[in-house]
Every structure is written in structure tokens, then in C-alpha cells.
Amino acid sequence: xxxTGTTRRRALxxxxxxxxxxxxxxxxxxxxxxxxxxxxxDSGRTEAALRRRLAAxxxxxxxxxxxxxxxxxxxxxxxxxxxxxxxxHVTALGGAARVAPPVPxxxxxxxxxxALAAAERRTSDTHVAAxxxxxxxxxxxxxxVAAAGAAHAYLLTKGGGR
Length: 162
Prior knowledge:
It contains five helices and no strands. It is an all-alpha fold.
């Protein structure tokens, strides 16, 4: 295996180890003081609100993909799979309507892709930050969505041949 293959293999092992530590840290046991037998309805409302907020964040990212594709149709083939994945994240989180006004799209295609990569990183960071407030099942979903966002940002920058 060449040097590039070894580097990629190490990167995959580090990523897998980080994901495993996130997922194994999500147990079904409640931390001390986190939940009492009477707080289940409050917990359900809190999780629903968190899901709505995060779905709106992912929905804004999906809408940004749509705006970039509309302004730069030559990017549609490259961006369609990533946009579809973000749409699936919105659905998994509970759906979201357009909440914020559309973000301005750079007039040049490379600038538009760079802006999407930055939006993917911000969205991924938001999902990672929400892990602290999420119940175990939602935390696992958020970890997966955040990892996908990080992968999208990579593909939009270094992995896309740009």
C-alpha cells in the first residue's frame, strides 16, 4: 500500500474511533439528576423542540443548496447527491419549512461551492453542540448527521477536485 493509502487508512481509523467513542458514550442510563420518573413529558417536549430547531438549521442548508443550484445550474450534477442527503437529514429530524430568508449566493461558482462548504461546517458544528442536550437516540442521529456534514464540507473543498 502506498503512502497515500496508508494516510487514508489512518484517517479512516481515527474517524471510526471518534465515531465509536461518541456512540458508546450514549448509554440508555440517565446521568444523575437528569430525569426523574415525573419528567418524561417535559423531556419529550424538550426533545421535540430540539428536533424542530435542528431540522430548521438543516432545512436552511437544504435551501442554500437549492439557491446555489438555481443560480449555478452547471453545479447541479455535483451538488445533487449532497443536497439529497441534507434533505434526508431534515426528514430524519422531523422536517422543516423555510424559516429564514434565502442566503445570498456568490456570483461565481467556486465562491458558491466555498460558501456551501462553510454552511456545511456550521451546520455540522450546530449538530455536534446539540449532542450535549440530546437523549441517546437523538444523539446517535445527530452524530451521524454531523459526520455527514463534515464529509460534505470535505467533498466540497478538497474532495471535489477544486
